[in-house]
């Protein structure tokens, strides 16, 4: 058994709740008049539209903005927002199938706030125990306690009637928590008192549970009597509480009241020595103290201790609000349900003076967990009061040991987590079989974590146990954990009670389902969650108890005899399509009997030819010639019965092709032969015990396990399994006369269990072998089909199966899907892709001329570091040193690539690009390594016995984490090399780095190296800048060739990124790119880049020269000069004319640019050049000249 989520209740009218709480945010507010309410219930029109609106509305995360509290008895749910609240009470209804189910329906709606501007900040539902002797643990009624931002705490009935209100502190109420009585499980455990704790930003109020219980009962009784008598003057009993001022913490957002604790003598002496020094005095008896733990900031967690008896409880009269008449009370309850209640009746409004607020008793922090950057968000106390879970703004969940005041465990990647606890008692059946049955009943503790960001609910064993369960749920759910049960219970009244409470509930606002987590106790017995022994023991005990409860003895079952051949035919029909596909793909010739050993007294073919099978299923020997009869006698004299059996199965395996032509007939014959041989004397020993392994059936299994003929082995296993079952059943029936009691039990054998496992394994092998027989596509690297058997898979380790599949992943057929379904764990998508990637890189390493980008794009982070160290780094370093020493680029491309790197120049370019991508993936994965947990490797149950070398995935998970700066350093080098090879630029890549940078190259990525830091040498930065400028120029020139990889649009952004890493001013690169784009005639692209340039003055000067070159070409160097252009040239100012004649248009790669583009460029110049610029007037002359020239055209 494992963890499960059980739905025990469902919320009704979710849309009604949402619309009422959020009606002010709707475009057309809902009118809660009687007619509208009744029409909403009775009208059946627009039903489909209503369902669509409800579904759409419920998908929004509205519940996260509400204050939600659930009674531990799950019979009352309160949803509040701002001043409004909705109470939902439990009701039972009959579904369509006639089954009774529990639902929560709206029972009251209304406004809770009475003061202007106050809102609901916290609420809890406290069920109060009944004082009647006949009670069995069900609550008498439930009190709803609500805290407001004004500081008021008000108490309501489940019908929304206000019982009492108290202003204990003039700050907003942050959190309400309750502690109820729990029966001590062990002697010596301090009995905890009931209390209600109220947290304010700088104060903590604790109300004694007994006093609160009595006050609430008295108020409820007086409300009923006042409503009956029409009186409005009620004197409630006083309320006893303590008020502590929490000091030495900057901010407090949540708390938990651990209860009364008593230190041991050693801890008392230790604390006295720390606080009082060497001469501190120690009291004779350790004092009893109440422990309070708070979370927030400065420190992150604070521990407070209040010595019992240090302060007297405060007695305060509460302000009560009671309806003056019965009709008023009834009208208030009814109108709250119908939505009419305005909660403030003008005629009954009474101005109340604020009661006196008592000062708080200062309480200093004893110690805390300081962490200046971490801020706690919530704390959840365990039922045993020894542990607590804390969430913070870093997305961590911390487990605290409250007795020692330390953090003992931390989970990462749980931002906005919600916590709860589950305490699971040991089953009574387990106690009966336990050697410690006389000891107190054991309890297991589990922590429930709901991560809304990931939509997952996890269950963890305490304190250092593994994750025992995980469920995928919605991302907008609420985890409801009360942490208390019934109030008003003590050690006397709780005897014999059966408390029906839910510890942890998950509310889904989309479906309205309320689910609880069911955890078996046995999951806490072992830290290893895969412990099959604990599961089997638990399941066996539960099964035994179930059978005994129904009056059936364990193991007793009515045997139903089934015909073995019918069972075999059913199995054949199940695997028939796979067998047909296997028979079509196999082309292996059958084995000839001429290969029999010459020393054999009788060939196998001759041996089988002298036997026949009758219609009655008997096996007879055919009398042949005298010579053959003598040979048969010698063979049976020499060969044992076991050897005869093995010979038959040897022939069967080798004649697989003939067997598959008529499988039904051949299987029937083999079954008859095997039954006959098994029933012969000496086949199965009479003394053989069914709970041990029979040597007779073991040799048959070994033959099937070792065979590479998957189809023949599977058919033989079908036959042998049925034959073994028939034989074992026959042996059991033959002993009826010896023991009548034994005949009533079902014949169970260890051999049958092993046969079941063997058949399942052979079915897996058959599907796998069929996939491997699929021929490769035209042009793919082929070869002989891989042979596999159960033995090879078990001896090859868990990775052998993946190696076989990944070597032929091109076989994307339905067979691959079938294999993955039979191996859901071993062939999970992550593992399959990882092994395929590795196989592809191995093939690339053998034939480096194949482009590696086809393979690396499917890789996973878990093996990328292994790929780098095994295959990539050697060739990358060879390419770097080759480029460093090559004096001419053509020598690099033509001569040295094959010699030093082992691949041609085109393959080197592709290889360098893939190196960049590989290193980028390494950096991305390293950044998210804390948020993603390591995968868990598992294997199918029938293949758990696999042994052999570690798989690729296991080796990958053992790899150490990479050093991010070192990976980035190598990525920078590979990017420079890739750019140089792509654009055919001469580059000495290692010369662009200083001595520290050169020494860090080609080291193990998991080590920490001395990296370059600080400002780089200006000469080195100049060389880097020159290379990046050349890359940008080459990219602009290659834009016109879209088929080339050099024209990719990501090259400019890459150069800017490289510039920031190489300490090159990115603005220089942008200005150069703008000029090059204008030079190429790509004005629109240049305008896009121009928006990102910061130094517009320098850019304006550069573009001014380029504009002059364009205009000079149009006026002076164009072959088609017009008369208008010549006249315009004569009218130009002498200065501008001289300047244009000095321009050299030959520097333009695209001089023939339309005049409107040049006019637009001049307009941009005038915009970016300031008026006080030295060349501003020249720009104005250019603008006039271009406009005049445009007008002439």
Description:
The protein is α+β, with helices and mostly antiparallel strands. The protein has 38 helices and 32 strands. The strands form seven sheets. Strands 2-3-4-5-1-30-29-28 form an eight-stranded mixed β-sheet. Strands 10, 11, 12, 13, 17 and 18 form a six-stranded mixed β-sheet that branches. Strands 6-7-8-9 form a four-stranded antiparallel β-sheet, covered by helices on one side. Mean pLDDT is 77; it is low at 27-58, 317-351, 552-562, 588-598, 736-744 and 851-859. Belongs to the Rab3-GAP regulatory subunit family. GO terms for molecular function: GTPase activator activity. Residues 33-57 are annotated as: Disordered.
Q: Roughly what fraction of the amino acids lie in strands?
A: 15-25%
- Order of neighbouring strands in the sheet with most strands: 2-3-4-5-1-30-29-28
What structural category do the secondary elements indicate? alpha+beta
Q: Strand count, sense and closure of the main sheet?
A: 8 strands, mixed
Uncertain ranges: 27-58, 317-351, 552-562, 588-598, 736-744, 851-859
Globular, elongated, flat, extended or rod-shaped: what is the shape?
A: flat
CA-CA gap between termini: 89 Å
Alpha-carbon Rg, integer: 43 Å
* Mean pLDDT over the residues: 77
Count of separate DSSP helical elements: 38
What is the number of E strands?
Answer: 32
* Helix percent band: 40-55%
